[in-house]
């Protein structure tokens, strides 16, 4: 653990997940890091989350802020960033920090002044807090050490940064302008912006976080606007990617959602239409293409093993409602 213990701001987000937010806060305290500022933001919950967290704030010292209306994850992240007085910044939702998380991340950031963020690996747990054995240790990085990404690669293949495991240098976030509130999702626009700014990261090849998957995960909810927003990223960040690569990427993404996340063909078709990809709707009905895509998913190790093959291969998506 760093001997000077620079202040770390932990921003915990809650939207009808007050019980998970409490566990997240307690996990941070249990790391034993001595200079921790905790800010909890409730984004317009309509259940008992607000009362639960307000009561908790009288027992555990942290700043609680209730948004009058839901402003989304990017907006709540920016609000937390505006309150932050720490030199380093962590965003936490339903996940849990392990004892090695804060001290290990801060040690790397203190030792390497050119690094803007540190990320690591995670174990996947369910709503009950128990490890989900079918998932491997979750990480977007392959090797430990310093890395730098290109914005085009982040858009096409995703970032090496696994969101629940990242600790930022606060000034790096402020220099980048914070999170982009034009989008429903907070991570992709941020990682593209950081890549454009030439920010370097450091990957820890060890488990630092428990990543919770449950039915309320925002990342597990399909939205018809997803592909349209992916295309907006291209124009808003002025990314130069060949059209054929863009098309293949979006088709792979929509078939991924159908195969692994139980998205119906009707929902997928709507997303393609909204993205202006009407001419590719036929791929949702093609058994040959589906079988080819299914085969490709078995050629590489996959954390997502809950393939609903029967539902995915079903013919006649127009009849789905």
Helix count equals: 12
Rounded to the nearest angstrom, the radius of gyration is: 20 Å
Shape label: globular
The CATH homology group name of the largest domain: Spore Coat Polysaccharide Biosynthesis Protein SpsA, Chain A
What percentage of the residues does DSSP assign to strands (E)? 15-25%
Tell me the domain tally: 2
How far is the first residue's CA from the last residue's CA?
Answer: 55 Å
The profile of the biggest β sheet is: 9 strands, mixed
Contiguous uncertain segments of 5+ residues: 316-321
Q: In the CATH scheme, what's the topology name of the largest domain? A: Spore Coat Polysaccharide Biosynthesis Protein SpsA, Chain A
How much helix, percentage-wise, in residues?
25-40%
CATH class of the largest domain: Alpha Beta
What labels describe this entry?
alpha/beta, 9-stranded mixed sheet, 2 domains, Spore Coat Polysaccharide Biosynthesis Protein SpsA, Chain A
Give a structural overview.
The chain has twelve helices and nine strands. It is α/β, with parallel strands linked by helices. The protein folds into two domains: 8-212, Spore Coat Polysaccharide Biosynthesis Protein SpsA, Chain A; 222-319, no CATH class. Strands 1, 2, 3, 4, 5, 6, 7, 8 and 9 form a nine-stranded mixed sheet that branches. Helix 9 (243-260) runs antiparallel to helix 10. The longest helix has 18 residues, at 243-260. The protein starts with 7 loop residues before the first strand and ends in an 8-residue tail after the last helix.
